[in-house]
């Protein structure tokens, strides 16, 4: 992101402004889809009658799919 702040550094990387815009669009899309998944997946699981709890810590153990 800091490269976007300084156009001289950006052009030194070999990226054109269009390429940089596309990269930023891709990153924004990934972030949007990830945050949407955090909201939508629990709703889908609830509608399907599957108990689903979002991990609150990286130390939480993953749930085995056979247990569902």
Write the layout of secondary structure elements.
Layout: H1 2-5, H2 7-12, H3 17-47
Search tags:
single chain; 68 residues; mainly alpha; 3 helices; elongated
Q: Treating each run of at least 4 consecutive H or I residues as one helix, how many helices?
A: 3
Q: What is the H/E order?
A: HHH
Which structural class matches the secondary elements? mainly alpha
**Can you tell me the overall shape?**
elongated
Low-pLDDT stretches:
none
What can be said about the biggest beta sheet? none
Gap between N and C termini: 41 Å
- Roughly how much helix do the residues carry, as a percent range? 55-70%
Strand portion, in percent? Answer: under 5%
How many strand segments? 0
C-alpha Rg (nearest Å): 19 Å
The average pLDDT value, as a whole number, equals 76
Structure, described:
By secondary structure, the chain is mostly helical. Helices cover 60% and strands 0% of the residues. It is elongated, with a radius of gyration of 19 Å.
Question: How would you sum up this structure in a few lines?
Answer:
With 68 residues, this protein is mostly helical. 60% of the residues lie in helices and 0% in strands.
């Amino acid at each position: 992101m800091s490269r976007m702040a300084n156009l001289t550094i950006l052009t030194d990387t070999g990226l054109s402004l269009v390429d940089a815009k596309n990269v930023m669009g891709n990153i924004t899309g990934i972030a949007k889809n990830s945050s949407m998944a955090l909201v939508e997946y629990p709703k889908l699981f609830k509608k399907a009658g599957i108990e689903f709890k979002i991990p609150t810590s990286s130390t939480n153990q993953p749930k085995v799919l056979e247990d569902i």
